[in-house]
Structures
1.
Amino acid sequence: MGMWIGRGRRARRCYGFDEIALVPGNVTINPDEVDVAFKLGKLKIDIPIIAAAMDGVVDVRFAIEMGKLGGVAVLNLDGVQTRYKNPDEPLREIVKASKEKATRLVQKLYEPPIKEKLISQRIQEIKKAGVLAAVSTIPQRAEDVGAIAQEAGADIFVVQSTVTTVRHISSKYKVLDFKKLCNKMKIPVIIGNCVTYETALELMEAGPAGILVGIGPGAACTTRGVLGIGVPQVTATVDVAAARDFYFKKAGKYVPIITDGGMSVGGDICKAFASGADAVMIGSTFARAKEAPGKGFHWGMATPHANLPRGTRIKVGTAGKLSEILFGPATLDDGSQNLIGALRTSMGNLGAKDIKEMQFTEVIIAPAIKTEGKIFQKAQSVGMGK
């Protein structure tokens, strides 16, 4: 398997969204009659597209609006929402900063300690609106923050880091026992991120309700440049999906996988599901919503790191309301709006009545899929030529 990259060294060929295409099915279905919902533990969520736990994407107001539309937005409990009583002030500073000063400013604004009272307050603010409250933290804080979040009424708890493994080694700090955490928590726990079969399988054995897939594909993430690590999302999703299916056969427990990052348009999302995803998590596309706290700016989760930032602030602009991004009507021609409509239409053309059936779609390697016949779009910078 793989090809030679030099004397005595082979490497696997891996694939991203731009390199594959989906083959239409022998049966087509009315898009209005397909089922796009997914299950996480005992929860049934109408929209299989989760808003990422990034400060430029999700605040309390955004989480409430996403919830009212039938979806879930994850609030970052390690960011400005829990460091500042009024998070709008630091957010305004980040938005106004020049690109030369943005990273240093973000580092500085994330120096104040996290306040436990604000963790409970933010969750309760979301819950008062009658929607699901999903929150995220890093493994080092997971035990303490998880207990606070659960008591405050959170519905979903995400433990997320650049690369997550069960067998983490450190002599400097206490290592999180994922199995113990999952057993202790009474709400669904999602763990991430990972990109390989073996790691995913070990994480599933710890007992989470879901697994996040993806290292470095996000629009504002610089991990692949800074650290040189990552696996293109199609291959990563296929490999982790294989671990999920094996674990289901072995243990009888189905652990949904959530492809996290690298998707900016409807076609990418559809390809993620065809690769085996049960749900997807996106940031930059939601950062373009009028309701997003970043006001058209978006920054990576590891941008605030004091010694080695692995993210940057990017300008994505504001494209429309969150409802338009999810359900349309689309006013843009680039596939970044009406994501649910795109998913439903793709499923209908593929003959998939639900997400599980979409995972059996025929996938082909098609490096010309985005360029074939598109010379005028490319020349005019419209549609797929942007």
Note: The longest strand covers residues 189-194.
2.
Amino acid sequence: MFYRGEDLRLTDGGLGQEDIIPCYDESPTWLVDHAWEQAMEVGRNALAAYMKYCREEKLPHSYLLGLDILFMGKVDPSNPRHIIDIRPTLVEGPCCNSYPACPAVDALKLYRRLQVKGFDPDRVDYPSHPTMVRQRIASMMIGLFHRRGGSGMPRAAVFTRPYPESEEETAHVLMIKAFEKASMETYRITPDEKPEVRNGKLWVHGKPIDMVYRRIERIHVPVFYGEKLAAQIINETPDTMFVNPWKIDDLRSKTIEERAFRRWEAEHPDRPVSRPKTLLDSEVTPSNVAELASYGGWVMKKWNSTGGKGVFLYFNRKVTDKAVEYLYLDASGRHMIHLNEDEVRKELDALKNFNEDTAVQQLRLVDARVLGPDKRLVYDTRINALYNAEFDTWDFVSGMSRSVPCGPGVSNGNSLLTNISSGAEVSPLVLGHLRSPEGKKDLTFGPLLQAILDGRTEITF
């Protein structure tokens, strides 16, 4: 079932200084059957829009991406006990996830944890089995190397911050082992290894590197490697291929992402990207945001809001109070602003001369599972996609969920922002088609996900 003595902890931090990442595996997220098919459709449309934008803007696209696809609905203005427009919704997508995300690394450990807990994670046919995710990434790197004219096996590296700053356990050790198992000569690269740039390639220990899996954003490279070397690494290594090229970091913006989606939909109106209604630039006016408020509220996402930074949720209490109590019992987390009617008007008035690089989106309510009379579990789903160069398509390879307990007495939760600083814990995501109908009988779904599984787009409570 699993290897005796296997380390199933999720950790980050420097070598010898790893911290345990909290993991909530008592209630795994099951994304199956019809709901999984809908989530895949959302992902495929978003990735197609991303590829179109990259090609037209002459940006080298990434080869491994994460998509946050949540199950969400909005409140009917005429009935606060009626949640409508329930669908899988992309809240952070390919443009905003520019470097390899943790699920690619953690999928196997989360799978093993489920086995230890007594669940049967193999009741589904996975798009890519958790035991094979790292191998698939390694195979992709080898394939890309050969498609660029390389022969034999590429020399690989994992590139990140110094160990006291990096996600050493999850990013370095596990991926290096996977690449070595695939017969690639593999190196870690931090400033400690004193890398160099020569002849168009990144070098380390006197060896030129062909393929790089990076765990650092471009803006942080000068901080840790120094301005001169950082400029060389980013600008003077055309013959070293990065799984996520440096230039693509320019897309880490909700406003750019929205423009990419609109460009796609102008040519493909039959394949829209399922996301919240989004306002940009001069569209952010009191009247337009008031329309969002009539359905529950709005969300402000600053240009650099990925990872939950710069995200603020504005609840119109007149519309949302009953739904919040029904779904979460309590939603009073950080960056969540609950407004009475007078406060809504004041916030709208402040938007009369709005001029910021900010996307304003419809507030959509996240699904939550019932864990007991006084506890709910808000969850999101992060799905990783791997580029298939042979067919110019994307394959879904892994996933994880972030879960936030909500309800009276929850000390570090009650938040719909499912990032770690808001009290979220990593939890397993099992995705695919059930092998048999009986596999669903003991699974727990939130009311919004259950509606989708039942073929509905609304619920009344």
Note: The first helix runs from residue 33 to 56.
3.
Amino acid sequence: MRTLRIKLRLRARHAVLLAVSAAGCGSDGGGEPPGTFTEIFETLFPPTTNARCNFCHSMPASDISNGNLSTGMDQASAYAALIDVVSTSSRCGGKPLVVPFHPEESLFLDKLMGKPTCGDRMPLGGMALSESELEVVRSWIEAGAKDD
């Protein structure tokens, strides 16, 4: 049921984005609220279904299996592993994972996009995130990457 609600919310968010884009309007502050970390966690890190990130990143940090990024098994651990942390992987080392207010500088978003600037697209071997899922991540970072 939770997955259905998330998918419906993502579809609604995507429809709003398409409507704004088609109208040629910018954000007026009264549109769709930014994504939340809870929404991202439930979509990307579900512990029991549709595993994406947690399949590799819930394991201990290892450069080979998860780019030295362990997000643990719960939402608080995942948030702490992403915010104000710099990658220590051999392929993307030195790049900040999430830079609040700056999605263009955030490796987390970059790795979810079609062609990341370093390493492989995530989730490795899994289905790419939809445009609406990427927009949730981007808008969350742009709004300050708060822990809700």
Note: Helices lie at 2-23, 37-44, 54-57, 63-66, 75-82, 107-112, 131-142.
4.
Amino acid sequence: MSNPTPTFKMVYLALLVALAVAVHTVEAAIPVPVPVPGAKLGLANIITLFAIVLYGYRSGLVVASLRSIIASLLSGTFMGFGFYLSFSGAVLSCLVMAAFMNLYMSRKVTLISVSLAGAVTFNVVQLSLASLLVQNPVLFRGYLPFLLFLAVPTGFFTGLVTIYLNEVAARAGLQLRTLPGVMEQGRVAHSEHNP
């Protein structure tokens, strides 16, 4: 696909932000098995990672930031305790996933590894900030193992969903750069449907 116009990219980013807000809102209603203030499953990272894959880390950062801000405004928690946890976790996990994308582009890790790094960062950052805000370091030491355990299945699931979305985007011609394995699959699928 040729480079998109600024308007085209803005429309797709707006759609990704809207989808991320929707996932964030639904996720907030899902009870987390570990009773840590602000702890979440991090499923909205699916959209953040997909934005990074599709448009790069800057767009992923835009999606992560706007998702946290808009969702907190809708829920009435803007600038509250939960907002700081959500915003910091979303932004820093996005930056970590962006850094791991360099390894992915060089075929050293998979998107699942990128997602796991983001999930671990998301939970560690939120727990660290929660411990700092309530001034209780015992909270960090006590709950860290549980949150790391929680990050493994959620990060794995997020990575699998992103891989699927990535393949769909490749078939639809929405990929803007060559990604390991995905573009090849997209070309094969295209050739099968268009002999």
Note: Residues 26 and 124 are 22 Å apart (CA to CA).
